[in-house]
Amino acid sequence: MNCAAPSDVQARVSAEEWNLRVNLAACYRLVAFYGWTDLVFTHISVRIPGPEHHFLINPYGLMFDEITASNLVKVDQDGNKVLDTPHPVNRAGFVIHSAIHDAREDVQCVLHTHTRAGVAVSAQKCGVLPISQQSTFVLASLAYHDYEGVAVHDEEKPRLQHDLGTASFFMLRNHGLLTVGKSVAEAFLAMYLFESTCQIQLSAQAGGELLQVDPQIIEGTAHSMKVQTSGLGADFVWPALLRKLDRTDTSYRT
After folding, report:
1. 48: Cβ contacts below 8 Å, ≥ 6 apart
2. Fewest CB atoms within 10 Å of the CB: 72, 87, 90, 230?
3. Among the residues of the chain, which ranges form H helices?
4. What is the pTM of this model?
């Protein structure tokens, strides 16, 4: 095992990995900023390109606004630390994230939350309803997984993989929300839409009769997103989010 103090991490990893670390740390800070945290009990992970199948995940026990590029934990597919660190890895986080990274070569980032709105909608039999513009993006690529208890058993992995399939949005019943993306930016933007969808749905259900979106409109949402972001997708908004963080606290970059 390689031993590296946090201040030495940048010198011990590739430039590509360091850039991933900075973006992942930024994502943790943004999740904290938008109020999507559950103390220390959820996770965001990133696959590091290469044949080793390593990925980065948060040091278990730190709040999301304490995450930095250096203190992220680098592990292999078996959960073994690749760079030494005093911080443990949450078993439940490892089971869910490693299962998805193992099954989806197209996915670089996996983002999982336990927000009040997300858990509330995940407990509704109807799931996500087509009642908002935000929901149309979610419903275009949404999958569900039934609750099996706290995810600490490897036996659940094949079912997680099967239920997710090729979807980008994953509702874990009675548990929370999960998004995947080809980049950190893509997974974050997906979660922003997913969380907004759930919040809007709960607010709308507290009012009068609901008006649903025509299913044909949902089929065209992928094209609509490309037009709205000049073909850049999540990369269109990510630089602005980093600037937002940098105006208040740049420590995530260390």
Report:
1. 16, 17, 20, 54, 55, 56, 74
2. 230
3. 9-12, 15-33, 91-103, 116-122, 133-139, 157-164, 184-205, 215-219, 221-228, 238-246
4. 0.91
pLDDT for position 246: 98
Tens digits of residue pLDDT in 5-50: 556 899 999 999 999 999 999 999 999 999 999 999 999 999 999 9
**Nearest alpha carbon to residue 64 among 41, 93, 95:** 41
With H, G, I as helix, E, B as strand and everything else as coil, classify residue 131: coil
* Residue 247 clears pLDDT 50, i.e. is over it: yes
Mind listing the domains of the chain with CATH numbers? 12-237 (3.40.225.10)
Pairing of strands 142-145, 169-172: parallel
What is the per-residue pLDDT across 72-120, written as a single tens digit (0 to 9) for each?
Answer: 999 998 888 888 888 888 776 778 999 999 999 999 999 999 999 999 9
Position 39: which residue type? L
Residue position matching structure tokens 């709105």: 117
